[in-house]
Hints:
The protein has helices at about 40-50, 100-110, 125-130, 195-210, 235-240, 270-285, 305-310, and strands at about 1-5, 10-15, 30-35, 55-60, 65, 70-80, 85-90, 90-95, 135, 140, 145-150, 155-160, 180-190, 245, 250, 260, 295. The protein is of the alpha+beta class. The longest helix has 19 residues, at about 270-285.
Amino acid sequence: MKILLSNPGAGVYLGHPLAPLTTWKIGGPAEYLAVPQDLEDVYKILSHAYRRGRPVFFLGRGSNVLISDAGLPGLTLHLAKSLQKLARQGEVIRAGAGVSLPRLAQAAADWGLAGCEFLAGIPGTVGAAVRLNAGAQGSNLGQLLKRAWVLTPRLQLLEFAAPELGFAYRSSLLLNFPHWLVVEAEFALTAEAPPEAIQARMRDFLAARRASQPSNPRSCGSVFKNPPDGPPAGYLIEQVGFKGRRCGGAQVSWKHANFILNQGGATAADIKTLIHQIQETVWVRFGIKLEREVVFLPEDLNMPSREEARHPGG
């Protein structure tokens, strides 16, 4: 069933399946799924939802998230095909939150701007990547960001310079504000370079990624953050014997133990069981608490954080 808002360009769907919109291909339906066309649509849809007290969730390309088997209550805002602005001014690129990271990397290469090559193999969107400070091969998005624009539940549009966002490994201050939506970002790149040289570096990054990570695309990416002091998460998981471990249709990758794959028919419950078993076993063996990189929905976003509750934009 399709319900149209006052703007006929903004579709809102009742009971829409969410599993096909995630990289894990797991999860129940959205009570309502909204597909905005532009920022004006986003304002209208969110205003409508907040006035009615509906829970709101944001979904980009569906990586780095695990959606409950029961699905999501309230409204899910699907941004993978909206907020697609991509423009260049000198050595600065301005991108909408829905722009995919591979598209951003390719555009920068086509314009002869270096710095985004490591993004070519990350299956996420600009908005989520800014929030999580996505990275690969020793680089991260926070190193490139100049500023970002964020929409709060009060429908205030806030502008942040990069230093204000407190970027750290797979983290930013935006994680304290899960109901804030990154809508646009600007990235400052380095001096122009021959597109052929940039393309070659992109190919090198992609080759290194393929060599170290499983080929099965039905994963969320890395499940756990690497501990700040100690061996990488994948090494720890391998050492406690979880490589290849299965629960239902979910399996820890034989190639890289920090990846859990949907081998067919996996449920969110299967994935959570493996995650909890890994965390408990690593803790008992090494005394190291593995922190999830993957976000559980709706659990991790059910309530505003303390910071969000008291911030004037919250």
